[in-house]
Amino acid sequence: MEVNDQADFLNAACRFESDETPTEILKKLQKIEKTLKKSPPFRYGPRTIDLDLLLVGEEVRTEDPILPHPKLHERRFVLEPLLELGGGELMHPIFHRTLQSYLPDVKGQECRKTNIQLF
After folding, report:
1. How confident is the model at residue 18 (pLDDT cuts 50, 70, 90)?
2. Is the CB of residue 55 less than 8 Å from the CB of residue 93?
3. Residue 83: in which H helix or E strand, if any?
4. Which residue has the higher pLDDT, 89 or 78?
5. What is the DSSP string of 14-57?
6. Which of 28, 53, 89, 98 has the least CB density, counted as fewest CB within 10 Å?
7. Is the peptide bond before 41 cis (omega within 30 degrees of 0)?
């Protein structure tokens, strides 16, 4: 069960190219989380950081890391940054729908864009 009653958090997305496998990338993400002391008090609870691998091209995987991320199309705070990076034509590799087509389903979820510069 996800917990919605928690402090606001900053969410960001990035796009990159790599010769590494999804498993190798996930291990690096988990190492960063550990370094930054990710330690939610319970599953889906508040945390200092949460790094997820959302898409790797059109790859579909049913083992860790599961691709595409199983909830990416259900979360406005995931869809909006992804669409900014990939444009409106990004497709969900399982459901064969554009990610843009999921936005009306999540518009009721709170999500505010900010202009924070990290460096």
Report:
1. very high
2. yes
3. helix 76-86
4. 78
5. -----SS-HHHHHHHHHHHHHHTT---SSTT---S--------T
6. 89
7. no
For 112-119, the CB contacts below 8 A with 24+ separation are 113/80, 114/10, 116/10
Picking from 82, 6, 93, the residue whose alpha carbon sits closest to that of residue 44 is 6
Tokens, residue 112: 């505010």
pTM for the full predicted model:
0.82
Q: What span, in angstroms and rounded, lies between the C-alpha atoms of 11 and 78?
A: 8
CA gyration radius, the chain: 15
Contacts of 77 (CB under 8 A, 6+ apart): 11, 109, 111
Q: Between 49 and 61, where is the model more confident?
A: 61
The pLDDT value given to residue 23: 96
| Residue (of 46, 54, 45) closest to 77 by Cα position | 54
Task: Give the domain ranges of the chain.
Answer: 17-51, 58-112
Mean pLDDT, rounded, of the chain: 88
